[in-house]
Amino acid sequence: MENLPSFNIIIILLFCYVTQSILWQTSAQDLPCRTTCGSIQVKYPFGSGHGCGSPGFHPYIACSPEGDQLLLTTHTGSYPITSISYTTSTFIITPPHMSTCTSMQQSPNLGLDWASPFQLGSSTFLLLLCTPPTSSLNIKGSPVCDTSSYLCASIYTCPSVIGLGLPLFPPTNTCCVYSPANFNSKGELDLQKLNCMGYASVVSLQEHPTDPSQWQYGVELKSRGGALDDYYVDNKCNTCEISGGVCGYAPPVNSFVCVCSDTINTTMDCNTRSLQNQPELAWNSVSLPSRKLWMGFLGGLVFVGAA
Ligand SMILES: *[C@@H]1O[C@H](CO)[C@@H](O)[C@H](O)[C@H]1NC(C)=O
Prior knowledge:
It is found in: Membrane. It catalyses: L-threonyl-[protein] + ATP = O-phospho-L-threonyl-[protein] + ADP + H(+); L-seryl-[protein] + ATP = O-phospho-L-seryl-[protein] + ADP + H(+). It is an enzyme of class 2 (transferase). There is one protein chain. By secondary structure, this protein is an alpha+beta fold. It has 2 domains: about 5-35 and about 230-305, no CATH class; about 95-225, no CATH class. It has helices at about 5-30, 150-155, 190-195, 230-240, 270-275, 280-305, and strands at about 35, 40, 60-65, 70-75, 75-85, 90-95, 110, 120, 125-130, 140, 140-145, 175-180, 190, 195-205, 215, 220-225, 245-250, 255-260, 265. Helix 1 (about 5-30) runs antiparallel to helix 6 (about 280-305). The chain is elongated and about 70 Å long. The protein starts with a helix and ends with a helix. The structure holds 2-acetamido-2-deoxy-beta-D-glucopyranose (NAG).
């Protein structure tokens, strides 16, 4: 009876050890490069972090530390990426301060970094709460606004215009359809210079051209130069992805690597390397924790026996 307390302690220690080993094993199975971030599928040239995807996309694109949002970060802020089209090399960001039909607000400038491989795609900007009349709004003498468009009249039917301090159904001469939009020399949509307080950006009218509550809001961006990266890397990466790996790059020269597991990177693909020496590595990485676990268990038994 008197050795019961020490037996309890051993059971507790053993339990802690087993729990820790299981946790260790689970986290070891996560790839250093993620294939999804939130609801977004992350594939080359996009990457979830340093060493993943294309080196040109880092540090602009990364998965948030919480792992729930793929973010584009520029000198003006961080913007959630809401969709990626790998076939057209385009993606859509939804800046948190952008106005939509359900919520209108003043916005800071939106900008892209010149050094980043991204440029504006084909979304239509609606500049809001500008100094009237917007028909005379110009950049170096050229008119900025498409005054023939009905989009301003449509978006000003959204009740959320009161969020900008406008009355319901405001006059449309404070709104401007700016398309194609140009960013200034700092790479920004310069709202201050244009004397506007906010903007909405529309990716698609979704077959409801006069119903702004049905439009798809967001800023479409495309990868500069059309094709996402060079043909050679594209080809290698394709093979890597088909074999279950994630494309990445490694120092010192950011050369291509195929990330197959947390312990295995190859310059080829995951199948090719498994023909060489994966069984041995896989045995080591899997057996190590379970071997430790068994030794801990046996040690515990010996201890109990001795006590
Ligand atoms: C494999 O590559 C990824 C991405 O570059 C890196 O994070 C990871 O540390 C590398 N793993 C090994 C074992 O070299």
